[in-house]
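Minutes, project check-in

Agenda point 3 was the complex the collaborators sent over. CS summarized: two entities, 582 residues total, and the question is how they sit relative to each other. Sequences were read into the notes so everyone works from the same version.
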Amino acid sequence: MGGMRRIAAVAANTFRETVRERVLYNLVLFAILMTLSGLLLNPLSLRQDEKIVKDIGLASMELFGTMIAVFIGVGLVSKEIERRSLHLLLAKPLSRDEFLLGKFAGLGLTLSANVAAMTAGLYATLWMIGRHSGPGLLAAVYGILLGLMLAVSIALLFSTLTSSALAAVCTVCVVIGGRFADVIRNMREVAPGAPGWLTTGLYYALPNFHTFDLKDRVVHGDPVGFHQLGWITLYGACYMGVVLLAALASFRRRDFQ
Amino acid sequence: MDVASTLLVPALSIRGLTKTYRYGHFFSRRSRQALHDLNLELPAGEVFGYLGPNGSGKTTTLKILMGLVCPDQGEARILGLPSTEFGWRRKVGFLPENPYLYDYLTLAEYLDYVGLLFGLSSALRRERAQHLLRELDLVRSAHLPLRRFSKGMTQRAGLAQALMNDPEMVFLDEPMSGLDPLGRRRVRDLILGLKAKGKTVFFSTHILGDAESLCDRVGILRSGQLLAVGRLDEILRMDIPRYEVLVSGLETTQLDALPCGIDNRRDIGERARLQVREGGLGALVTAVERVGGRVLSVQPVSESLEDYFLRQLTAAGEEDPEWAE
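CS then shared the predicted structure for the full assembly.
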């Protein structure tokens, strides 16, 4: 019980830390502006305005959310290590596991708040063009949020292993690789020389962010069932669990010189 | 554990602590021994000064005790519990060297956060924070973002967080670092106040004057090894005591002709101050009187810690010891 309270304390502090980052507001504002820019395409869209606004809005949410997840996620732990603020905390009755889980939960809260703000921006834009989208849009938003949480866990793992700059590069590589996991699997069709074990291994090892992508289905009005939402939740939770366990194992053994 | 047995348990016990840092990449792996077979024991209620030049292993010792660095060998017990356990952390405060506090928080928020980690109730957190802000003269800065704090204010804020849980024992790494004379005085008073309340204070420093004015005992560390541990007067008595003899009525040539064994001579007008070791004192006084000089005074010269360190380091062939007054 005490452990949960300490995790909650670190999470609340992380939330406070990240919402006071100026770069966060810039990114969220930019995402909302991008969504609003869909209005400019209204005259050219031949009654496709709703789809265009949804497409741009969801894509902006995913892109800027990923940027927040990667760059703030990487900085969360490595900055504490580099600036040694961590030394003060770990001398308190706070285990390394509690610290890391608190950081993860805190950034998860921040991302949820950002995604909520961007979703509100998207609904407002749709309302401005006279379209009233139902809750179906939220399925795509949920998929985006799961993908962002997975990206945060990967960023945390790398930030426990290496410096913030290298951790950012590694996280970006894994996230981009994960977005193109299907392309990697089919690489032998365009490059027959590529070793099969490598492409198959990469396909299964990298997080398949495509799994969380429900944008096309939602934009085109196809229903997304609870079965599918359950499946992507299970996949995301399992992958995040493994990544977080690896991060905890690495963090427990690390010397803070 | 009853009160009597609590008093018998050392506040800190270190056995055979050894640490080697390894660095460099795969093809050029290097290592540096930071601590070698460190043994130390502190009774409860003592102010202990952990002294040594920069790079002697003071901070490594503290990092191992606080669980930030894993030792290669050895073990430590804090308040009777293994340092790897968690229980002692509720009763201990820690101030690292040059603490970094979060830019985006105010001091009041930071102290509240620290209090939460210690599991203090909301009322107790407020009460402790108010008390520490007053004691460290930070009341007016409590609601400023920590990024606006000067170095001295940050150091005092670091001390406040170390004392938030009203600890039984405090570990302070260079607590006077970056403080102006007034700030140093305030921290000195704070440490003396902790001692008066029966708390144990372990502080590392390379500012010898602080150790001389505050510590019951000191430990002297050099290149990861303890040179000496004990009361200051015991440590300085390890040397042969010296005397300063003030003489007058002697010409320079007569002074030059005095028997060997004079460590230091300073001519002041018609007088001269001569420093001599205990064994040579009688011969010197006799020689001065034989050539017609007068012995005005003989005073024992206690060696300062700085003298002691410099001589130890010079004997070990180390260069550029970084000490400060």
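Noted in discussion: Chain A touches chain B at residues 2, 5-6, 9-10, 13, 16-17, 20-21, 83-85, 87-95, 253, 255-257 (CB under 8 Å).
Follow-up: revisit at the next meeting once the mutant set is ready.
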